[in-house]
Design goal:
By secondary structure, the chain is α/β, with parallel strands linked by helices. The chain has 14 helices and twelve strands. It has three domains: 2-65 and 235-299, Orthogonal Bundle (Helicase, Ruva Protein, domain 3); 68-230, Rossmann fold, CATH 3.40.50.300; 318-361. It has helices spanning 32-40, 68-80, 97-106, 125-133, 150-153, 169-181, 207-213, 218-224, 241-256, 265-273, 279-293, 318-332, 343-347, 351-361, and strands at 2-3, 16-18, 24-25, 87-90, 116-119, 158-162, 183-185, 192-194, 198-203, 227-230, 262-263, 298-299. Strands 5-6-9-4-10 form a five-stranded parallel β-sheet. It is globular and about 65 Å long. The chain starts with a strand and ends in an 11-residue tail after the last helix.
Length: 372
């Protein structure tokens, strides 16, 4: 039984897939010249072929899937890509948010210039401002030369800010200005520099909860949330798993010099039943390990076991929830209680009231480790 994928205009169609084996069968889409070249080497266009034999043009966007969940996301991308609107991609870790951001850029009028990628969680707080907005020579000790920031590099292009929920509060204010005025200032210079940069952001965090915790600015959230797109977890994309498995088999069989011909239907069914808490990233790692261990052309992919004992139950007691919330706010302020922006201010409490409640809940500022 073959299942075909409905495609929207401008997107190269993915190969049909045999749902019994998970193999891709035949190819639809592509230019007439590409199809002619492919047809020359396949006397029957419905002959089975494996992921490693698939033409490199069958999935030019690198987004593989036929599920309703993926098609909904692609439809939203088709709607927004041609605009200059800010896009917020929300989804669990490992769902491929960066691939969808790349698709937005590739379908936009800015695709002639490379998209600039920034992982906000990977850059130290002390370097964040100069990385994003640049610096002048002598802006701080060790700044021996002028540095162009990521926003200037992305002028007339797209900047992808991954893990935007981890952006420090002081940088959030500067990003808000960029969104409002389309200008940046290099560190060490008061001169504004205009930038024509489209902003696409992504996060796995609940930004509404971060606003409640006082670690994310509400005004910035509304600026970023112009066109939100929810990227589905892999557990909602069961019918895509066989396609993804063969895509990864193609990648790793080439890398390791192995030939993989078959995967049993039972094995693929078992993989579809697993909930994949690590999403596509976890699936890719599992397939990589299986290909490394493969001793022949038939691949067996072990299904991960759920480590339920290692996952502790989250307390639903009110006192525990209150303790966790107050601790998060205290940690976000460096355990500063008083003053504007302090923990008491963010929680809407008097400092003395917060101190009394901290004593009652057993919350104490950690003692710094003694230096050696």
């Amino acid at each position: 039984m073959l299942q075909k994928v409905a495609q929207s205009p401008g997107r190269i169609e993915r190969p049909d897939t045999d749902i019994n084996t998970g193999r891709m069968t035949g190819v639809r889409g592509g230019t007439p010249e590409q199809w002619a070249r492919f047809h020359e080497s396949h006397t029957n266009p419905l002959n089975l072929f494996h992921g490693r034999e698939a033409p490199d043009w069958f999935s030019s966007s690198h987004i593989i899937g036929r599920s309703d969940a993926v098609n909904r996301v692609l439809a939203q991308i088709d709607q927004v890509a041609a605009t200059n609107s800010t896009v917020l991609l929300v989804g669990e870790t490992g769902t491929g948010k960066e691939l969808f951001a790349t698709q937005i850029h590739q379908l936009s009028a800015r695709r002639g210039r490379a998209m600039v990628r920034v992982n906000c969680a990977a850059i130290p707080t002390t370097l964040m401002e100069s990385e994003l907005f640049g610096r002048e020579r002598g802006a701080f000790t060790g700044a021996l030369a002028r540095q162009i920031g990521r926003f200037e590099l992305a002028d007339d292009s797209t900047i992808f800010l991954d893990e935007i929920g981890d952006l420090p509060l002081d940088i959030q204010i500067k990003l808000l200005r960029v969104l409002e005025e389309r200008q940046i200032e290099r560190l060490g210079s008061p001169k504004p520099i205009g930038v024509n940069t489209r902003i696409v952001t992504a996060t796995h965090r609940n930004l509404v909860q971060r606003i409640a915790d006082g670690t994310f600015r509400e005004d910035l959230y509304y600026r970023l949330n112009v066109f939100p797109i929810e990227v589905p977890p892999l557990r909602e994309r069961g019918e895509d798993i066989s396609l993804l498995v063969w895509r990864f088999v193609e990648e790793f069989s080439k890398a390791f010099g192995k030939q993989i011909d078959t995967i049993s239907r039972e094995n693929l069914d078992a993989l579809q039943q697993y909930r994949w808490p690590g999403n596509i990233r976890e699936l890719r790692n599992v397939v990589e390990r299986a290909v490394i261990l493969a001793a022949g052309p038939r691949l067996m992919i072990p299904v991960p076991t759920t480590k339920s004992k290692a996952i502790g139950r989250i307390s639903e007691k009110l006192v525990d929830i209150q303790t966790q919330h107050i601790r998060r706010v205290l940690e976000s302020t460096g355990w500063r209680i008083r003053g504007l922006g302090g923990a008491a201010d963010r929680l809407g409490l008097r400092p003395t009231t917060l101190e009394t409640r901290m004593a009652k809940l057993g919350l104490r500022r950690p003692i710094p480790a003694a230096s050696v």
